[in-house]
Amino acid sequence: MKAFTLFLVLAIAATLAPSILAKEFLVGDSTGWTINYDYESWAKGKEFHVGDKLVFKYPKGIHNVIRVDNATAYEKCLVTTETEALSSGNDVITLTTPGKTWYICGVIRHCAEGEQKIAIEVLPKKLSSGSGPSPSTTSASKGSSFAPTHHDGWMIAIFGILVMIIIV
Ligand SMILES: [Cu+2]
């Protein structure tokens, strides 16, 4: 009976593990996505990894979120027409590529005068010590906005051990 309970708990842990591993960042915390907020300070000290999510929250219709593809566009708040703006008011962006990434608000003057912009450095996905990095997986997920979340075996193992300590 005890073994079955343990199995159940481990199964649940394995299911929950990806959501624990992939972090969700609420941009601006409780302030959300707005003008006159220091997003540079907000991003400072945070570690963003591939697979993590950025959540932009704002009243729908007031702001939007546009990804710009270089530092100059970010500095000068240049919006290219081919970039589609996210405007749901609760925009979730999954970070798929390591490197620098920039987002600005495309509503007139919000970026230029209200500093409504954010630049972040995306670090590669945390590697699991068990299976090691798989180059084929990395290249397969490139170019597609869909990033499957991979399980980190060791995290599940640690979780399992913790559960066993609690149960026994
Ligand atoms: Cu705005």
TrEMBL record:
Region of interest (Disordered), residue spans: 126-146
Residues annotated as signal peptide: 1-22
Protein's membrane topology: Single-pass type I membrane protein
Pfam families per the UniProt record, alphabetical: Cu_bind_like
Keywords annotated in UniProt: Copper, Disulfide bond, Electron transport, Glycoprotein, Membrane, Metal-binding, Signal, Transmembrane, Transmembrane helix, Transport
Domain Phytocyanin: 23-124
Entry's Gene Ontology BP terms: response to symbiotic fungus
Protein name: Phytocyanin domain-containing protein
Gene Ontology CC terms: plasma membrane
PROSITE patterns per UniProt: PHYTOCYANIN
Alphabetized GO MF terms: electron transfer activity; metal ion binding
Localization per record: Membrane
InterPro entries assigned to the protein according to its UniProt record, in alphabetical order: Cupredoxin, Phytocyanin-like, Phytocyanin_dom
Organism: Carya illinoinensis (Pecan)
Low complexity bias locations: 126-145
